[in-house]
Amino acid sequence: MDIQRSPLARPFPELPSIAGVTLRVARAQYKTWDRCDLTFAELAEGTSVAGVFTKSACASSEVELGREAVKQGRARALIVNAGNSNAFTGWRGREAVEAIQAQVSAALGCGVDEVFVSSTGVIGVPLPKDKARAGIEAALVTEPCGWADATNAIGTTDTFAKGAGASAMIGDTRVELAGIIKGSGMIAPDMATMLGYIFTDANVAPAFLQEALERANAATFSCITVDGDTSTSDTVMVFATAKAGNARIESWDSPGADAFAAALADVCRQLAQLVVRDGEGAAKFITIRVSGAASDDSARRVGLSIANSPLVKTAIAGEDANWGRVVMAVGKAGEPADRDKLSIAFGGVWAARNGLPVEGYDEAPVAAHLKGEDIDIAVDLGLGDGRATVWTCDLTHGYIAINADYRS
Amino acid sequence: MDIQRSPLARPFPELPSIAGVTLRVARAQYKTWDRCDLTFAELAEGTSVAGVFTKSACASSEVELGREAVKQGRARALIVNAGNSNAFTGWRGREAVEAIQAQVSAALGCGVDEVFVSSTGVIGVPLPKDKARAGIEAALVTEPCGWADATNAIGTTDTFAKGAGASAMIGDTRVELAGIIKGSGMIAPDMATMLGYIFTDANVAPAFLQEALERANAATFSCITVDGDTSTSDTVMVFATAKAGNARIESWDSPGADAFAAALADVCRQLAQLVVRDGEGAAKFITIRVSGAASDDSARRVGLSIANSPLVKTAIAGEDANWGRVVMAVGKAGEPADRDKLSIAFGGVWAARNGLPVEGYDEAPVAAHLKGEDIDIAVDLGLGDGRATVWTCDLTHGYIAINADYRS
């Protein structure tokens, strides 16, 4: 099947090369296709690593091993396999990951736990070890490539390549961040795996890097949804090579810590929004701002309840300012809410205030707003200071076409 | 818009009349349509009542008042308004319900808290008190009607009338149960309100009736889903007129208590399944049996995670035995699960066992099963004795067409 490029696509940005990061791609041919499907990022000695992983109880071996290895804080290599997720393959899947780690650690002279592996694609089929081995051998001797090639190689059903960059000043030193991500196109029997990698030349202690990533993740990747389904392989990692030569960031008290964390969160937010923009069948990009909640976490859950509601998503697809469905989604979220304090706006115009429709509110600007591509929904719960912003896309015939009409 | 009759529809059954229940319908004309939209069930003195209501934090005044009134255990009347849900209408909505209660209690000479009101339809518009008053006046003097007329009068976007019956022996006395329900068709800006009412001539104490209803509800109405969205008005009530003359059922130790509870659960299960069969755009009826869970409740949550997954629902629509999506939905449920103990079957054929695909499993009977109308998915978690059965429908273009393509 031909999946059309998302109408919400963005061009791939100019990204700086990151000192200490060497990218290479190769053809492992995990599927019968003519494209690079193995990505190999070699990282300089002294690279710090941090990662966040899927909460799925059925996570892949790649996730299980990566979650453990990230604790020691150092990385020398990242390998991403596209076309086979290696998920739900038991001990044979684990063997395949361990074979890759052994091969790469021998080639680079590093520990096996400094080699990180991700895989995305068909599930239930163990990753073929011979194809992986040949692919890595080829990658070890091939010419380095740029961000666009690496991004295309990690993609599966993505309709456009997704990358984002940022920079920050740490004292007098400028550090660069570059991130790439794949995710949100799915074809049976593949899953919506989201894999994101951010590279920086900043000198950052692993513990701080992990804390900054978790904080950024909570406000970005944890605030997007396409269909509420969670992959067994979702992974976001950040690698810091220390090549920029800044004074090492050890804690939030270190000079430049806030600036670095802000730049990291900026890249995470850009990448997260790009995943939504490639959501299956997406025709509208929806921003949901929740305020007045009992806590920030409660606001996020209310926002995700709205963002995951098929009735809200289809209403937006139909360009219908159906605030009743937003009331419904707030009510079912299981979070503190008071019907008679609830206010709802579309495109900045309040349709309901304090539990009552706004009589004679001007529907014309709302209707015009809903015809656009970027939709803004604001919900005020009137209870406390908690707030969150969540991003999603609409639910269209395109989603059904991609996931039901075409067979694997 | 014309919504086609669901391909999963069932004919309306023959239901016995229930002594002590008098049904009447009238034209309140809550919308500009030519049909009865007010249903009035008059109940004999001595009728016990029980009810379960939506857990929405934004519930309607009907739900708020009903939830309180049911505690005193007696009922003399039920009024159902179709075409206006009276939800999200603040104090004016509450006034409308209280006006109906006052009018009916005066006519019947009963307490206002013995008059139960439900409403379904457009939200954000207070129920017009004059139309309700005139409708009730008409209903008070019109000829009684049968189950089919009452069922049609409570419906909104339902594509077929849904009813179910059962009987039970209590000692030597045969008691009858008859239930009607509306739900699961939705058109913007209406919501998928499910309203169900069961009537019986059995003599049952209110406390036992409530307990039996809650127990039945947990295994029936709480185990169905169309799209995971929860109405602000969902209500299921049971009325027991005591006209059969059986020895009063006071507790689980009373003779016939188990038989009555089983018959009540039977009616609930039939009605719940009929709601799924009228799910928007439904083309397949899906039964999900979860076993081996840590507890029954955990099994139900895993089942609902599968049943609510858009990826699973679209796979079934596409007649694709995509067990990888079932793995994903188990993993994201937030319940105890072990990837390497998980087994999945379609139509009785195991596709995956103990965390691994079944090599060379016979796909032919599975493919044939998926082409049918009734789909069976079995999931064994391999952990404990917890089990549950959940029912849902597939996710098709019909759902998008009903909820996005047509505007309110």
UniProtKB/TrEMBL annotation, chains A, B:
Active site: 193
Pfam families (alphabetical): ArgJ (PF01960)
UniProt keyword annotation of Transport present: no
Site entry: Cleavage: 192-193
Sequence positions that bind substrate: 156, 182, 193, 280, 403, 408
EC number: 2.3.1.35, 2.3.1.1
Annotated pathway: Amino-acid biosynthesis; L-arginine biosynthesis; L-ornithine and N-acetyl-L-glutamate from L-glutamate and N(2)-acetyl-L-ornithine (cyclic): step 1/1; Amino-acid biosynthesis; L-arginine biosynthesis; N(2)-acetyl-L-ornithine from L-glutamate: step 1/4
Subcellular localization: Cytoplasm
CDD domains linked to this entry: OAT (cd02152)
Residues of the site described as Involved in the stabilization of negative charge on the oxyanion by the formation of the oxyanion hole: 120-121
GO molecular function per UniProt: L-glutamate N-acetyltransferase activity; L-glutamate N-acetyltransferase activity, acting on acetyl-L-ornithine as donor
Catalytic activity: N(2)-acetyl-L-ornithine + L-glutamate = N-acetyl-L-glutamate + L-ornithine; L-glutamate + acetyl-CoA = N-acetyl-L-glutamate + CoA + H(+)
Keywords, sorted A to Z: Acyltransferase, Amino-acid biosynthesis, Arginine biosynthesis, Autocatalytic cleavage, Cytoplasm, Multifunctional enzyme, Transferase
Cellular component, GO, one term: cytoplasm
Biological-process GO terms, alphabetical: L-arginine biosynthetic process; ornithine biosynthetic process
Chief place where the protein resides: cytoplasm
Coiled-coil annotated spans: none
Described function: Catalyzes two activities which are involved in the cyclic version of arginine biosynthesis: the synthesis of N-acetylglutamate from glutamate and acetyl-CoA as the acetyl donor, and of ornithine by transacetylation between N(2)-acetylornithine and glutamate.
PANTHER family reported in the protein's UniProt record: ARGININE BIOSYNTHESIS BIFUNCTIONAL PROTEIN ARGJ, ARGININE BIOSYNTHESIS BIFUNCTIONAL PROTEIN ARGJ, MITOCHONDRIAL
Protein family according to the UniProt entry: Belongs to the ArgJ family.
Oligomer and partners: Heterotetramer of two alpha and two beta chains.
UniProt name for this protein: Arginine biosynthesis bifunctional protein ArgJ
Organism: Erythrobacter ramosus
